[in-house]
Design goal:
The complex is a heterodimer of chains A (about 70) and B (about 180).
Chain A: E1 5-8, H1 10-16, H2 22-29, H3 33-40, H4 48-57, H5 62-65, E2 66-69
Antiparallel strand pairs in A: 1-2
Helix pairs in contact in A: 2-3
Chain B: H1 3-23, H2 42-68, H3 70-75, H4 77-107, H5 114-122, H6 124-146, H7 155-181
The chains are: A mainly alpha (about 70), B mainly alpha (about 180).
């Protein structure tokens, strides 16, 4: 399988949800703000559990937040 | 070269091995864009603290050997006691740091997230490499120095043991801090 990139819409979704801060999102999903920064910069690929937790905060599906890019 | 210098070289080589092994898999995706700050995690902060205090105590112990010499450090009870207390201080610092990190890991309240746990799990890889390099430098140094005599004074066992302990203990926070550089 060719190497794929995981893109995400976390930054856009945060702003669409009352300009939620990175810290607020980190507190809700149980991770550090550093991890949220790296996720938004697409330098870290989260586990399925973290991806589901982030999607739940935004009342979205995982596919609405993350997408696979070949 | 004097054996004390070989000892210092052994410690330095062990620490250098940590950095080399730790940088092996460093992410080459470049620096973060301007204006993007990476806040330190609790694990990162306590690793810096543990490394700083541990390295200071280890350096002080190495300084005692450098000032008094190997023979005097071993023969003089007061000097040997002070040297040993400094190194026991390194052990205590890392025991406290380890206990704190274990309590964070047990609580699962977000203080250690999945990335922290991943980094923490990879960090010990550096310790074994650094300890092996330290032992290798001691072996080369002692063979070069005592080759003609055919035997090594007993107190070098004491120094070999403690240098390996210090390098091994410092290896963990170094491994953690280098792990965060992977991005």
């Amino acid at each position: 399988m060719p190497k794929a990139e995981i893109r995400n819409e976390i930054r856009r979704l945060r702003f669409e949800h009352g300009e939620m801060t990175q810290q607020a999102l980190a507190d809700q999903v149980g991770c550090s703000r550093q991890t949220i920064v790296l996720l938004e910069q697409e330098r870290y690929v989260p586990s399925l559990a973290l991806a589901l937790a982030i999607a739940r905060v935004f009342s979205a599906t995982v596919e609405d937040v993350f997408r696979l890019e070949d | 070269m004097s054996v004390v210098l070989w000892g210092v070289l052994a410690l330095a080589a062990g620490l250098a091995a940590m950095v080399v092994v730790g940088r092996w898999g460093v992410n080459r995706s470049g620096p973060l864009p301007a204006g993007v700050e990476l806040p330190a995690t609790p694990l990162q902060r306590i690793s810096w603290w543990g490394l700083g205090v541990g390295a200071a105590l280890g350096a002080a112990a190495a300084g005692v050997v450098l000032v008094h010499g190997v023979q005097q450090t071993y023969d003089n009870d007061h000097v040997r006691m002070f040297f040993t207390l400094l190194l026991l201080g390194v052990l205590i610092v890392f025991a406290v740091v380890s206990a704190l990190v274990k309590s964070w890991a047990a609580r699962r309240d977000g203080k250690l997230d999945e990335r922290d746990r991943e980094i923490l799990g990879r960090a010990p890889a550096i310790q074994s490499a650094a300890t092996l390099v330290t032992l290798a430098v001691w072996m080369v140094g002692l063979i070069e120095r005592f080759h003609d005599v055919g035997m090594v004074p007993l107190f070098y066992l004491y120094l070999i043991f403690w240098s390996c302990v210090v390098v091994n203990l410092l290896g963990l926070p170094v491994g953690v801090l280098l792990g965060y550089r992977r991005g």
